[in-house]
Amino acid sequence: MRGPNIVVSTLCNKCLKLGLRAFNGKKMVCSAECFPKLDSLTLLGLFYLEEWKVDEGAMPTLRHLEIENCRKLKMLPDGLRFITTLRYLKIERMPMAFQDKLVEGGEDFYKVQHVPSIILPTVYLSYDP
C-alpha cells in the first residue's frame, strides 16, 4: 500500500487491521507486489479515505475482507475481482449508496460476484458530525 502513513506492504503479515487514524490519506494503492501472504484485511474508521486502488496481483492470498465506517470511500476497488481467494466480505456502517452497488444487479457487483459470503447490514444510520 502506498500512502502518507503506510509503508508496510512488503511485510509478511497474515492479518492486518487498519483502525482509526492508521491511514489519513485520501487515496490508498495496493500494488501488484502488495502483501503476498495476507489472509485477512480490516479497514476500520479510515475517515479520509476516498479512493482505494488494488492492482492485479496484489494480496493474492486474501480470504477475509472487512470494511467498516470508511464513510468517504466511494466504491470498492476494481482489482478485487482479481482476488479469487476472497471468501468473506463484510461491509458495515457504510452509506447505503455504497452498499447498493454491491448487491446483485448493482454497478459494482461484478467486483465481488466470486465471493461466496458477502455480509451487508440492512440498517444504516447516517449522520454528519
Automatic annotation (TrEMBL):
State the species of origin: Theobroma cacao (Cacao)
Protein name according to UniProt: Disease resistance protein family
- InterPro entries the UniProt entry points to: LRR_dom_sf
